[in-house]
Amino acid sequence: MIANRSLGLLTDLYELTMAYAYWKSGRHTQEAVFHLYFRSNPFGSGYTIAAGLDTAISYLNEFRFDDSDIEYLATLTGSGGKKLFERKFLKDLRGMKLTCDIDAIPEGEVVFPNEPLMRITGPILETQLLETALLNCLNFQSLIATKAARVCQSAKGEPVLEFGMRRAQGVEGSVYAARGAYIGGCAGTSNTLAGKLFGIPVKGTHAHSWVMSFDTEEEAFMAYARALPHNTTFLVDTYDTLEGIDHAITAGKWLKKNGHTMSGIRLDSGDLAYLSKVARKKLDKAGLTDAKIVASNELDEHLIRSLKEQGAKIAVWGVGTKLTTCYDQPALGGVYKVSAIREPGGEWSDTLKISDQTAKISHPGIIQVRRFYNKKENIADAIFDIRYPPQSGCTIMHPTDPLRAKSISAKTKHRDLLVPVFRRGKGVYRSPKIAAIRQSTIDNLKHFHAGLKRFENPHSYPVGFEQTYLGRKKELTLRIRKNHERAAHH
Questions:
Q1: pLDDT tens track for 402-431
Q2: Angle, CA 194 vertex, CA 295 and CA 298 arms, to 5°
Q3: pLDDT at position 3, please?
Q4: Is residue 265 part of a domain?
Q5: Of 22, 18, 9, 36, which is closest to residue 335 (Cα–Cα)?
Q6: Is the dihedral of CA 441, 444, 449, 452 positive or negative?
Q7: What is the domain-level CATH number for residue 236?
Q8: Residues 280, 434: Cα–Cα separation, whole Å
Q9: Which of 116, 202, 281, 410 could cross-link to 392 by cystine, CB 3.0-4.6 Å?
Q10: Burial of 314 (0-12, 13-18, 19+ CB in 10 A)
Q11: Per-residue pLDDT at 4 exceeds 80
Q12: What strand order describes the sheet that includes 233-235?
């Protein structure tokens, strides 16, 4: 949905005013490294699913300012009514092309707090302008994909369908929610635009209005069966659910007699566990053993788990509002922090944001994530600076608890998660097809300890800073604090 549009203005105003200030002070060619990461997993989860990279790539490919953008920026004023931007600056924006290097973790990877989902290197004016949109692309879809993965986990392999477009936050929100949900493991979506744009399988039944437009429910089901004999899932709770099941069976027998197979019935209200058991018995007794029972109605991972524990005979789960809006946590707290600066061709100088909260101290340097694994599962992730990579095995330290450390043998296999996406502003990464990304999510989750996927008090997967990196970070923190204190005394 973001193709063929100039997207330079998809940013916060302060990114543009900072860009202007860099330009005005002659610092716009200074090079910077930024990392995009988050500080805690959503929903109390033990993990997060990386998603949104392909959308970010589409945005980066369309990053530019067209004439109408420049005309708009020329109208903006600051205090006193003076123009906010000089014409020369706006002219430079109009001709600007990205020259950044960008590395990112592919979609479908399982990721954890403090691990950079993306590293952006280039002129500080460019890297600053990209902040807001990149956070928008990765935050939302990673959040949705994580929620979907949890819902699919509860369904234990049974198909989950994303049904939430009508409750989503706007048109584009619904489309990208469908994309994130599919990456997280959903089997399809009701959103036909998302199906067209991304190649997601589309699924659907019918509404109560279809039944209500006929004199009787029997007439409605038979008319639907005649119109769509290969897509017949009947919504049975318009009037009386048990009667609705019987009417669906009548239509199902007609379909069977005429060489077709009834897809199933859908329950959208009432005691889903009880009704599904009754429905299964009725359908099987009628010889409609292939008919699936679809359930919807404010489902999420917790309600699905409860229904499974009650022995519900539900085979397909339609999950809407609580998935598409991420009802229990509507945002992932992604941040975008500068970690190193240099003059063109010079040496990098690491940067650090200081905070009284250890978790909010930013991460200096040029960071990579190394995942260690054995034949059975992934065992730990090390965050390190690519200028000082571990030469053999390493020790990782917990980001906020120095007493928690893990030593990793030099013989342990590993792979680095961030891969090249752009070099000098040109794309070098080919995104997999979305079905392959979805399968990657499913496969990647299998390589983690089962305790990581608990909903309550999940296992804490070992993620830490490589020991020498953490030492340099501590030294830089102390040096910056001392410099700040010295400056405050003058």
A1: 788 999 999 999 999 999 999 999 999 999
A2: 25
A3: 64
A4: yes
A5: 36
A6: negative
A7: 3.20.20.70
A8: 34
A9: 410
A10: buried
A11: no
A12: 188-189, 160-162, 316-319, 292-295, 264-267, 233-235
Domain limits for position 276: 205-297
Order of all β-strands in the sheet with 394-397: 405-408, 394-397, 463-466, 378-385, 367-373, 413-416
Residue with tokens 């959308």, as numbered in its chain: 55
Pick from 204, 189, 143, 150: nearest CA to 434? 189
The secondary structure of 155-206, three-state, reads HCCCCEEECCHHHCCCHHHHHHHHHHHHHCCCCEECCHHHHHHHCCCECCCC
Q: For residues 18 and 22, what is the distance between their CA atoms, to the nearest angstrom?
A: 6
**Model pLDDT for residues 175-194, shown as the tens digit of each residue:** 999 999 999 999 999 999 99
Mean pLDDT of 469-474: 93
pLDDT the model gives residue 1 = 60
| CA pair distance 464, 122, nearest whole angstrom | 27
What Rg do the C-alpha atoms of the chain give, in angstroms?
27
Residue 312, domain member (yes or no) = no
- Predicted local confidence at residue 486, as pLDDT: 76
Residue 484 has pLDDT above 90, yes or no: no
Location of structure tokens 């203005």: 9
| Structure confidence at residue 393 as a pLDDT band (50, 70, 90) | confident
The total of structural domains in the chain comes to 1
